Amino acid sequence: MTQEELDALMNGDMDDLDIEEEMGVADSEEDFEFEEEESAPESKKSSKYENSPVGYSDETAHQWPLPATDENKMVHQLDDVTKESEEKASQIFDIIEIISTDLMDKESNVQNVIDVLQSNIDLFTTLNEKFPDVKAFAEQLQKNEEALNDANETVEMIQTSGDSIMNVMDIMQYQDIHRQKIERVINVMRALSKYMNTLFEGRIDDEKRVSSATHIAGDTHNDLASTDDIEALLAQFGK
User: Fold this and answer.
1) Which end of the chain has less Cβ packing within 10 Å, N or C?
2) Looking at beta carbons, which pairs linking 117-126 to residues 24 or more positions away fall under 8 Å?
3) How far is CA 14 from the centre of its chain?
4) What is the reported pLDDT for 165?
5) Does position 83 have pLDDT exceeding 70, yes or no?
6) Which three-class secondary structure string do you get for the chain?
7) Residue 107 backbone dihedrals phi, psi, to 5 degrees
8) Which of 62, 57, 41, 68 minimizes the C-alpha distance to 234?
């Protein structure tokens, strides 16, 4: 008992206190009902899972198969992979072929430079032997010999690069093998799909079948699926 209640009892005002308490309780009940009315529209708001199977949510998504959308259709995705990979591989081969052709042209150009340098070396070698006192002949002979070495190294680098490009083209051939493997998987999946459709095929059209009961005696729950729920579920798995 609070001090306020004790003072009211001593003064004989206990009845007034009871009335005030009853009014307070009534007010709290009205507030509670008001809060429920305010929260009610939230519960009626549409959910992103309203067309999903009963019980489907972020927490239970791992228990359900993925919805049959374009992003999750397996054969559809594999077809996209094979198509895109083949297109990209074709583009890569075109670029490699251009690079290989350019390297062959440059190798031919460098080879012409080598022939000129070798001719200069022969000339300055003869001049240096006949005129050993002329330093210009010896200097030019040395410069041409150094330039010839650089040109030979350039040719070797071009040839090595060409060999590397050929190795890349050989490796890229495996892309075609991978594409064939994926296509084989697609064919197996399609064959299994057709087999399952044939296996579950019936003699009676679905339109002529007797409608199934939504609730059977002995079920542990009373939650009945409405016609709209069933149609939404069939539409989800029929996409």
Assistant:
1) N
2) 117/144, 117/147, 117/148, 117/151, 118/148, 120/144, 121/145, 121/148
3) 74
4) 92
5) yes
6) CCHHHHHHHHHCCHHHHHHHHHHHHHHHHHHHHHHHHHHHHHHHCCCCCCCCCCCCCCCCHHHCCCCCCCCCCHHHHHHHHHHHHHHHHHHHHHHHHHHHHHHHHHHHHHHHHHHHHHHHHHHHHHHHHHCCCCHHHHHHHHHHHHHHHHHHHHHHHHHHHHHHHHHHHHHHHHHHHHHHHHHHHHHHHHHHHHHHHHHCCCCCCHHHCCCCCCCCCCCCCCCCCCHHHHHHHHHHHHC
7) -65, -40
8) 68
- How do the domains of the chain map onto residue ranges? 3-34, 69-200
The two structure tokens encoding residue 76: 């559809």
Tokens of 227: 């016609």
pLDDT attached to residue 205: 79
- pLDDT beyond 50 at 36: no
The structure tokens listed for 225 are 């699926």
Confidence of residue 26 (pLDDT cuts 50, 70, 90): very low
Token digits for 92? 């890569």
Question: Cβ distance 89 to 178 under 8 Å?
Answer: no
Identity at 124, one-letter amino acid code: F
With CA atoms as reference, report the closest residue to 148 among 114, 174, 178.
114
Kindly report whether the global pTM for this prediction surpasses the value 0.85: no
